[in-house]
Amino acid sequence: MLPSVKSVWLDAFNDPVAGISAYTPCVHTCNLFGDGENRLVIADEDRKLKIWKGTQKASEHPLLDTPVAICSYISENTAPRLPALAVAAGSHIYIYRNLRPYYKFVLPPENVNTEEQDIWQKVMEGEIVIGEAVAQLTRLQDAGVVLQTRSLQLMNIGDPDAKMAFVEHWQGQPLVATTVITCMDVVKQAIDEPDAVSCLVVGTESGRILILNPAGTAIVKNIWVGITPAMIAVQGELDVGYRITVAGRDGKLYHIRNGELSQTIIQLEAQPVGLVRLAKHVAVGCMNDVVHAYTPTGHKSWSLYLPCHILAMQRMEVTGQRNTKALIVALSNGEVRVYNEKLLVSVHVSPNPVTALWFGRYGREDNTLLAITKSGALDIKMLPRTANLEAGAIGGGPPPEQEIPLAVPKKTRLYVEQTQREREQAADMHRTFQRDLAKLRLTTARAYVKVLTDGQGAAAFTTNTNLSLSLNIAGLGPRFRLSLLLRNDGSTQLNDIPVALRADAGLYSLGKTQFTIPFLVPGLQYTFEVPVTAIDPMAGTGTITVLLLAPGGVSSSAPLLQAQIKMPMSEPEEVE
Amino acid sequence: MGFFDKLLSLFGMSGKKVNVLVVGLDNSGKTTIIERLKPRPRQAAEVAPTVGFTVDEVEKGPLTFTVFDMSGAGRYRTLWEQYYREADAVVFVVDSADKLRMVVARDEMEHMLKHSNMRKVPILYFANKKDLPVAMPPVEIAQALGLDDIKDRPWQIVPSNGLTGEGVDKGIDWLAERLS
Question: Which residues of A touch B27 (CB under 8 A)?
Fold first, then answer.
């Protein structure tokens, strides 16, 4: 089914026992120490920040919480552009500089329902018993209030003693609504350059998108989406114009344009599993193994139907001589595919399903693909300088013949004159054409009428066999003699021509209603006679139709020739 | 070589000119190695990444090397093939410590050997930066680059240290022997 698409990658390094467990948002490369050699930074699920340099792990740093996402960005315009590394975990963003903890940003608390707060206040002060508090909380929940985790936990504890201990545990601490980070990305502040000052964009469990200032100390934009963002994709610059595509937990795509939530909401067929921004589109991978690409206005451009589940998606922004923005998709059967727009340009199979992908500069090589597999292996591949990712290079797409220009002849003098004439006498030509068209219609109509009326007279001829037939009636009645004068005007003789005669059986009786002409020699006049008797001379007159049928052996039911004669009024029978 | 040429070469004046193309990935030490070929007073202590290419003339016994020091940066590598036709010898510098990009070096080398303008000229490989603790031995590098498959032209791999000049002369001597 697949065209034989090969891998474009060079296998640089593979460590099957790297022991990494991470997903795409937690893998990143950056110029960590400002020495021009990019390090691989992995925020591992085992709460460790792992730094790789070249083919070896350089260091490990413990994290306080399970990481959600990591990013690096330039926070200051000062001379050594040292990127800040941001690790999102729980409700905090830990910002590292030079791999040293530098700052911790805490998400602001959300508003808490006042009634819920009151209940906790009372239960802590002992004004109401725990059972009463739980009943009130249940009522509140039934009324549609979204309760805080602490309340839900209390309601779920079955043992009364444990309930007591739980309240005791939180004694004196006011009820606050903490939220956690679900996704994180970076937006450039003013200019789109690799080392331009950027800001963090964070999605929270409470359904907000927050944009931080470059230092990461304060929120400059707080956008309420209303649904928990699962993934975000950012395009543009904060000061110039930006667009954030949000894949929500409810399986819909939301768009934020310059801080405003757009009315365009895209309902996906299935839950999104990956969101990648490309050159002109945003590609969203869904659980039904389809990748859809949407334009910024929300129109769908194309879809890719994949053979099995999507495990990871990543943007492939090739730098250097080409500026291709392609899409890398890792599938559950171990395949890693590269799509340039809709066209599959590379496939390679990993022995283990890939869970995390990163494409970027690693070490000193610009176009490097880093893949982490389910078994914890690290695989590093590099894009060779000569790799061709263009459409049409590897099968598919329009055929190469399309690119060959047609051999259009040169503009001759005749052609030029004709064009000139057409331009000057367009009106005349149109009129002539219309007149000819009318003539054609008239001819057609005449031919049609002829077809309808043919064979209605006493003499007839056909064109395709060159026969002519004329009918004569002799006698006064009631006995007549019908003579058929038949002449073959063609060049070949005709054999075995059946003749059929038709008349109103109530008026006339025919001597024979059918007979066969054995032979018709060209040029001779044949005469056949058929006696006709009028049954009742007083009954009026009718017509007799003579049909010459197709010769024997020809399987055509259409008569060759048809002639009709109107019978004269019959004399009454003489009684002797 | 006639008697007169021999006499001239004795005085180091013969000046048979050969074009040597120096290629390799960025940061492998091409410019540094060329600096070590120059007479000591003319050597520069610090080198900056080469942009495009630079041309130097170096005398080595009876030969005058015209050295084309190509930039190894990705965007300048297309420039290499412009000089294949004139090259009488190629020096390919490999960073022994850069295990990760050995495959890229191999890819570039294979493209170079396949190129139609490239004649069957001798190739000298410098396994540079041999002083670094993570440096690969020359045998491993030769294996990683698939040098054993090169049967149609003479080649040699020499471990070197561009900073001290160790091994550089040994390699250039081999090249001079091939070319004279």
Answer: 364
Tell me if B16 is assigned to a ligand binding site.
Answer: no
Q: Which residues contact A275 (CB under 8 A, 6 or more apart)?
A: A231, A232, A233, A245, A247, A282, A283, A284, A285, A313
Q: What is the CATH number of domain A10-109+178-398?
A: 2.130.10.10
Read off the CATH number of the domain in which B89 is found.
Answer: 3.40.50.300
User: Is B9 contained in some domain?
Assistant: no
The whole-angstrom separation of Cα B179 and Cα B173 is 10
User: Quick one: DSSP state of residue B103?
Assistant: H
Facing A55 at nearest CB: one of B74, B99, B111: B99
Instruction: Tell me the shortest Cα–Cα distance from A387 to chain B, in angstroms.
Output: 11
Domain enclosing residue B26, as ranges = 17-179
Domain count, chain B: 1
Burial class (CB in 10 A: 0-12, 13-18, 19+), A267: exposed
pLDDT (0 to 100) of residue A313: 94
Note whether A11 contacts B99, CB cutoff 8 Å. Answer: no
In terms of CA atoms, which chain B residue is nearest residue A387?
B107
What's the pLDDT tens digit per position in A162-179? 888 888 888 877 778 788
Q: Which two tokens stand for residue A310?
A: 């999507």
Which residues of chain A have a CB within 8 Å of the CB of B75? 320-321
- Whether B112 is in a domain gets the answer yes
CB contact under 8 A, A55 and B78: no
Q: For residue range A179-232, what is the model confidence (pLDDT) as tens digits?
A: 899 999 999 998 888 888 999 999 998 889 999 999 888 999 999 998 999 999
Do the beta carbons of residue A107 and residue A91 sit within 8 Å?
Answer: yes
Contact: A12, B27; criterion CB under 8 Å: no
Query: What CATH fold (topology level) applies to the domain A459-566?
Result: Immunoglobulin-like (2.60.40)
Residue B99 located in a structural domain? yes
Query: Across the A/B interface, how many CB contacts are shorter than 8 Å?
Result: 49
Q: In chain A, what residues touch B26 (CB-CB under 8 Å)?
A: 364
Confidence of residue A113 (pLDDT cuts 50, 70, 90): confident
**ipTM, interface predicted TM-score of the complex:** 0.85
CA distance A85 to A61: 13
